[in-house]
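queue> pop job 88
queue> type: inverse folding (structure -> sequence)
queue> payload:
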């Protein structure tokens, strides 16, 4: 009989402890950030989306060779003297980039392709959202 009342008291006591914890968190300030409207600042050393400056790229193919998952594809042709513009720093361009693709489905954002680039044409940006988000799009608008 004593064990029965002891179990009832233990059950009620655990409910009181749980409610106390709930009341403490109920009146504490919120720490949740409402994402689309508010964002945490992104640190400078964050490895997010890759970006290429085509005016700096000399199609040396070092970034594609350094990529561990082969997500970079580069196609180039020989530059025609006088018809192709020089690099941004004024040096002569030997190859002209016709196609530069980064497959972000494969990319692991390791930044191993950034280091070997001699002209710093490829770099990591602070953008982490790859998709374009239209805040004004109403639900069901794209089904019309």
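queue> result:
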């Amino acid at each position: 009989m004593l064990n029965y009342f002891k179990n009832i008291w233990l059950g009620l006591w655990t409910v009181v402890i749980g409610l106390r914890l709930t009341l403490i968190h109920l009146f504490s300030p919120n720490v949740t950030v409402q994402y689309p409207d508010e964002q945490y600042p992104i640190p400078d050393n964050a490895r997010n989306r890759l970006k290429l400056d085509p005016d700096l790229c000399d199609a040396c193919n070092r970034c594609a060779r350094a990529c561990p998952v082969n997500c970079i594809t580069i196609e180039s042709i020989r530059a025609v003297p006088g018809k192709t513009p020089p690099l941004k720093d004024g040096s002569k361009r030997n190859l002209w980039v016709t196609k530069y693709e980064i497959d972000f489905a494969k990319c692991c954002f390791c930044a191993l392709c950034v280091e070997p680039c001699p002209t710093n044409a490829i770099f990591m940006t602070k953008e982490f959202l790859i998709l374009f988000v239209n805040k004004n799009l109403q639900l069901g608008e794209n089904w019309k």
